[in-house]
Amino acid sequence: MIRERYASCIQACNACAIACEHCAASCLREEDAAHMALCIRTDRDCADLCRLAALLMARDSPLADEICRLCAIACQACAEECAKHDHDHCQECAQACQRCAEECEVMAKAA
Fold first, then answer.
1. Distance CA 62, CA 53 (A)
2. Per-residue pLDDT tens for 20-37?
3. Highest taxon of the source (predicted)?
């Protein structure tokens, strides 16, 4: 069943997208938001790719494995960038991104 095959990865992608959006919004409220520009950009790219990956998996698209490969790359980059910052929102985002990267790598390899 499609739902069982993708459930864990879809959940990780959705959680990651939310964490990234929260992180980007929180970074914009930081005292030196300009210093957080790369984090914000990385968060936004990651969130968009996570949402797309979740949608393609939900519809069992033949492109789901390819977008999961790309999503894993974006999530890993975002995890690394967010981990550089001491803010709680960045650390939480880094953890969500790392989990999503791992889930997407498994999904991409399973295809």
1. 11
2. 999 999 999 988 888 899
3. Bacteria
